[in-house]
Amino acid sequence: MNTKQLPVTFNQRVGANVQRFRKITGMSQAELGRALGRHGFGKMEQQVVLMIENGRRPLKCEEAEAIAQVLGVDYQALTTPADDRSGALAQIRAAELAIASINADRDAEYDRHRREIERLTDEITQHEQKRQAAAAKLVELLTAEGRPDLASVYADLAPAEEMISMVGRNGQR
What we know:
Elements: H1 10-25, H2 29-38, H3 46-53, H4 61-71, H5 75-79, H6 84-144, H7 148-155, H8 160-170
């Protein structure tokens, strides 16, 4: 049997559930307060969250709904007595929220890198085109000057990708 004292009043039960679900999600009291601030409840300090969790500050319905949303639980879970099953379900929900958040972060990071690779690929292509145009002009000038030996050096330039991989293997920039 659990030797921990069970909440007596409604506000204590709600506060204990808020604390339990907050801890399951790994969120601090200050983080919960900031999240509630982002949900339109002004600047909710850590001390206010502490008072809620201790049952000394009753929650408004709108606050309870926002807390439930932030913690990833049903509103009703804040008001019902805790048992092992609801705790396990809350842990599952919190883990699912964490996974969804990590996946969203990963997807955003992937997209950012993909866009950067596309930008750099376009930039390399543009520079390669300029390099090829300059080499063609140089071949034309050297041929006109009667220097076919030098012109042949620039007539068959290695593709940029080959040059980049060569530089990379040598550890040079």
